[in-house]
Fold each of these.
Amino acid sequence: MEKKEILKELEHQFAEKITATSSDFGDDTLIIDRKSLLEVVQFLKQKPYEYSMLLDLTCVDHMGREPRFEMVYHFFSLTAKHRLRIKVPLSENDLSIESLASIWKNANWLEREVYDMFGVSFTGHPDMRRLFMYDGFEGFPLRKDYPLRKRQPRIRLRK
Amino acid sequence: MKSNFILTKLDQVISWGRKYSLFQYPFITACCGMEYMGAVCSHFDLDRFGAGWTRFSPRQADMLLVVGTISQKEAPILRTVYEQMVEPKWVIAFGTCAVSGGIYDNYAVVQGIDKIIPVDVYIPGCPPRPETVLNALIKLQEKIKTQGQEWRWKRRKS
């Protein structure tokens, strides 16, 4: 499958910062190091690419693999009508990454969700709290090592 | 002897009145709510059995319909709503999620609302057909009729 123009151009632009690129089933993917995330993302937001829309931001737990976690960002260019996926591998020992909340407002809650479910902490986030789970909830439920039937009720249950 | 006879008859009269004048409070959290609407509106018409009047405050209701998935985060709210209702009160668990947690066997969902509040009638189904809901209501009416003046809260230990 032929690689899109954008990937070639980016490989040229950030030659040493891009770990790998792929273009499977029409989804152009870019794997970069977390140190260069902000730089790449800000570059993509400017003209001529204008990936100005953050569609989604989530995390994947590849348990048993190193690095264990992987952040996934989906961007959309309204002018080019094109989607771009950026993946950032994260090691379990140092689970932190730059926040995008200052660039995209919707990143605020999306990052809080990722923090809530996976325990990834975002540096520079304005309000790093849990989003869905309640106060006193321990652990991160979407991690693969969270026990399936572990319950943490807020009130004392009957029986 | 004579006074006992009168009291029994009074009990029956009160029970009869109660079973046909259930004021419901729907606690709707999920997709079962659509089926609830179907059961309550004119096609199936819960009002035929005297339970058509939806109250929008638990303080005025005596039948709590728990319709949908109850998450752990919601559990204290549901218990507060139940405690706000005045006796006598009855609870119907509507749909598989309210009955047992359904397919959501995970960290977030209460595995059946009977873990939080006592339940009188369980309606299975995902979602239940409106006929099942009507059947459950009739079952609850039978229970109310035979229950008489049980005054459950006087006997409650806790």
Amino acid sequence: MKNILQSIYFYLDTRFKLSGLIQFAKKKKVPEHKHSFWYYFGGICLFLFILQVLTGILLLLYYTPSVDSAHESIQFIMSQVKFGWLMRSVHSWSANILIAAIFIHMFSSFFLKAYRSPRELTWITGFFLLLIFLAFGFSGYLLPWNELSFFATRVGTDIAGTLPLIGKHIKTFILGGPDVTGATISRFFWLHIGILPLLTVIILGVHVLLVQILGMSKPIGIPQNKVKEVPFFPNFILKDSLGWMLILALIGVLCVFFPWEVGQKADPFAATPIGIKPEWYFTFMFSTLKIIPAHIFSIEGEMIAIFGFMIGGLLWMLVPFLDRKAAKERRSPAFSFIGWIVFLYIVVMTAVTYLLPGL
Amino acid sequence: MNRRKFIDFFLGGSLAGTVIVFLYPTIRYILPTKQIEVVIKKITAAKVAELAPNTYKIFKFGTSPGILINTSDGELRAFSAICTHLTCTVIFESDSGTILCPCHNGRFDLSGNVISGPPPDPLESYNVEISGEDIIVSKKG
Amino acid sequence: MRKIINLLSIFFLAISIFSLSLYAQKNSCVECHQELEDELLAPVEAFKIDIHQQFGLSCADCHGGNPAEEDIDLAKDKTFKGTPQRFRIPEFCASCHSDSRYMRRFNPSIRVDQLDIYWTSKHGQLLKKGDTKVALCTDCHATHGIQSATHPKSWTFPWNIPQTCSRCHSDKDYMKDYKIPTKQWDDYKESVHAHALFEKKDLSAPVCNDCHGNHGATPPEITSIAFVCRQCHPSAGELFSQSPHKKAFDEIELSECEACHGNHKILPPSDEMLGTGEKAVCIQCHEPDSEPYQIASRIKEKLDAFIKKIRHAESLLEQADRQGVEVSEPKFRLTEANSTLIFVRNLTHSFSLMEIEEKIEEGKKVVAEVTNAGEAALREAKFRKTGLIIATCFIFLLSIALFLKIKQIDKKKSS
């Protein structure tokens, strides 16, 4: 058995020059300290992304992106296809868990100041990945073409449409028309299985490459030589896999006991259901828009909120260049503080959406 | 067998088992299903030849019944067969040329409008097209 | 000069026309009565919404007099009729409403036979004999604020009619001398017709005038009740007419629908009305051990068994649904069985055990299909849980294996 494996290795090595790669992999080390638990989340995001791609490709076998048949095809997958309920529920649950994991990964990297030099580009590509995955979530949510997804899409794009000057054009471009129609399904489907995966491969590729080249960032204040390091292969990867297994088990339980619902087919002429909300990961922005007063100093409140988020996002993305202290390997409590404010804001506003009546 | 080998075998074995447990549903998933197609908004309700004038056919439209009528003038009309009174399935009465709900004698004309009896609303009407020898019924709008 | 004269003439002409038009619109009745109080003011207030006003009619068109005259004596001239005496009111209204040539100007299709019909009614007959307590035109239509019966606020709009009638008919003291019941409105309020009308806003539900007539209001005779009900319930009526009960009921002069369903307090029919239980209507006539008694009992048995099967299928589907299995198709198929159930419940009016059994058998086939689907769905739910346990076991084993391997490797590192 061992001989067979050795000959295969030899064959591939002479053609792909694998030994260089293997040497590099052997040298890859992961620092161990009291915060190294957070290192797992990058791998969790990657694992869940791969799970999404696999289940997504399977769903692609039976899903049809047209007004007449989208909802029916989901119904078909949930009731007629063997294990269709499982594949679809895994895809829907993992999408939500993935986005949660991305937020955790982002915040843990933020608080550990992993964005500081030389890892600025890792942070920036990560930020773009956040946007890409939010777009994945938004586009995918419409595809089952049920009541909730139809109205959530309409509400979401209406908000985009309120931007001055360009809003209407952006909204029309996103929707493929003036309103949510079959053209929107086609467009979102195009985004969801074509454009976004392509962008992900490129940007994720850069992101992961940077992590390999630069290694894991250590928290500020720990001297270089005092840090204990473990090899990535096999120690850390085994621990990674353990985490992935536990997540798989969790997803399994969720899918069997809480399969994702098919819902009612979207009816564009029906009245908007009361209390319609976007998916949870957008609710902090949604509630901000709902709570903000109609006018602040004679400027529309909603406009201020939207611009606030855009500028906030921009600043967040540029944090590696703004945090001068961290760049000099010095503690930066001010930015940690800002991070906590942002984190708490997101958590509180998300909770408010579900707890406050009449929102 | 020493401890190390045991752990390796255990790891390999449980990995193989897990892979199979995931592979099995995936393979069953991609094998063709019993009902091979999704039922959609358009459906071939009948063949042109099977419906003589002044007769009707109840067909399955998605998960609901539809009624396809060949009128005495040879015109094809299709409606939802769900009576708007208490959801019984309607029939076509050739003598009177009207659609009748046998449960409480609700009557509809050949435009789906209520003529008499308890139904409060008209029957939803569908589009009918002929393609070759197929009669294709589709939802309006 | 010429120009000035022309201008002045036009000016005076304009003023004359203007004052003439004011003069023509002058309504001294309203002007005076507006300043008065209570019953003398009320007509002016009420008339604002009156339907006659919309057709350009006013006080003088009914009461006579000259509304162009300021002075009260001149206004109340020869043509002035004043307030008609109560027993003259029907003829007062009919002076226009029975004149088809006059009414044609305003509404060519309006009926003009109300007065004739009224004289045939109980109210009309008593009025002829001098009883002015009975209802006449203004009691039901109001006096000065009369609105079309198609207007929701009108006293004669369907959902206001029961109150209009019961103003007298539910008043025990008022109705004392007539020796007829006064519970009709109370009874009707609990009926399925009242529920349809007031809760579901179904305007096709019958109110007092649909069964009793409006202008020709009379209680229907025993033989007529069934005809009245058949207006809206023809299928039950037809089934009944073909059943042995029709001849029997006619012979003993029992009113058809009313005997089992009541007249004013017609409650939603329940399955309890069938069979031989204590709420059953069959045992009102049929002796135990008689053949009809047996048939009634069999019919109820069959129906109950069918319903039980349907409920069982329903609960299977609910269970499966709760456990996450997709069962919308079988659920839909079950509605067919429910259709059959509704059909069979109506079919009971035929009292034919054979027909009922046949129809139930049809329904049972559908229910059997659905039950199979429900059981399959529950098996699927079980299969999913079993599969989850197996998969989780493997994952668990793999996790342990990984954990052991990790420990082993860590130890190796440190040794």
